[in-house]
Design a protein that fits this description.
By secondary structure, the protein is α/β, with parallel strands linked by helices. It contains nine helices and 16 strands. Strand 4, helix 5 and strand 5 form a beta-alpha-beta unit.
């Protein structure tokens, strides 16, 4: 099964998506007792699955209480805990799928014209935070897609403004396109540091910003428009050079905006081995485009844990993708909580 999913990610599916979804669920049904018990109580047999939509959804909250692993974990990823609650833990037995998912999606959305630009990462390196899925991803990106001038500018106390200033100044002299990889938090901190010193840079045309992460746990939220204005002023990097990424600890794959290909900002699309729905929080029925509801994601690369996830994010379907609409409130997550109790009862 692992080889089939790897091939589907790397080369495109050789069989219908629903067939791969059924096989992936059967693989997890055999190996994860909590998922098997949940499916049995609901009368869902893997052989009867005809659509990926019928695979039982696992709320992301389950990762805070249960070890959901279809094999011996090789990597252990924990959520940041910025919202002050329990941290999710993803026991990941197949990190090769994670790397394959990055390799098959990141270049298409973030390097559509090819090349290996110098990359500056404003995220903690793996040596600093060994259990961060974002750190795992960025470490792979710098190694696989960045040129030798790539570097980190993030230390134990956050963004290292002096290192970032030196790197930006050197790349301005080079006048070759670069890529910045930053969380929204870190970008705000960098822009504030540059403003304090009265510094502005003019990065080469074609430079891009890979923006990941939101503002959970911060008192002040900055909109994408505010960030784009700050980046344009401080770095001469236009809004159309900003690619947003949607990911989470509980997932293996990521969604992206198609900004570099002329797509609208804020509209996330998924790679071919993923699917999504927007669901009514009460009935969990699929909603029509434009109506906000809970975002559900199907990720074949999540073979090692749970392929069908019910997130705590609100979204609206639009065209081929979705727009985020905030986080679900407690009352909207009642169905998620009940499913977590079912899973825990069967673990």
């Amino acid at each position: 099964m692992l080889d089939a999913i790897l091939a589907a990610i790397t080369n495109g599916p050789a069989e219908p998506f629903d067939d791969l979804a059924r096989a992936a669920f059967a693989f997890q049904y055999e190996r994860i007792p909590a998922l098997r018990d949940l499916a049995d109580r609901r009368g869902i047999a893997p052989a009867a699955i005809r659509s990926w939509r019928a695979v039982p959804m696992v709320p992301v909250a389950a990762f805070r209480r249960l070890e959901l692993a279809a094999g011996q974990p090789v990597e252990l990823f924990r959520s940041s805990g910025t919202s002050g609650g329990e941290r999710s833990v993803h026991h990941h037995p197949f990190p090769g799928l994670y790397r394959a998912a990055i390799d098959a999606s990141f270049p298409a959305f973030c390097l559509p014209h090819g090349g290996r630009p110098p990359m500056l990462a404003l995220v903690p390196p793996r040596s600093q935070v060994t259990d961060s899925s974002l750190g795992f991803m960025v470490d792979h990106l710098l190694t696989r897609f960045g040129d030798p001038r790539s570097a980190y500018a993030f230390g134990p106390h956050g963004v290292e403004a002096a290192a970032a200033r030196s790197w930006l100044a050197a790349r301005q002299r080079d006048q070759a396109p670069v890529m910045l990889l930053a969380t929204a938090f870190a970008l705000v901190d960098l822009l504030a540091a540059l403003a304090r010193y009265g510094l502005r840079f003019r990065l080469a045309p074609g430079s891009t910003l890979f923006l990941t992460g939101g503002f959970k746990g911060r008192q002040r939220e900055h909109t994408l428009a505010e960030l784009a204005a700050g980046v344009a002023e401080a770095l001469a990097l236009p809004a159309e050079g900003i690619v947003e990424e949607y990911g989470m600890t509980e997932l293996t794959s990521q969604g992206y905006t198609r900004t570099l290909l002329g797509g609208p900002p804020g509209l996330f699309v998924l790679p071919h081995w993923m699917r999504f729905r927007v669901l009514d929080p009460e009935s969990l029925e699929e909603l029509p485009p434009g109506e906000p509801g809970l975002l559900a994601l199907f990720d074949l690369a999540n073979l090692g844990s749970a392929v069908h996830l019910l997130t705590e994010d609100l979204a609206l379907a639009e065209g081929e993708g979705f727009r985020l609409a905030g986080r679900a409130a407690g009352a909207q997550l009642r169905g998620c909580s009940l499913t977590v109790e079912e899973l825990a009862g069967g673990a």
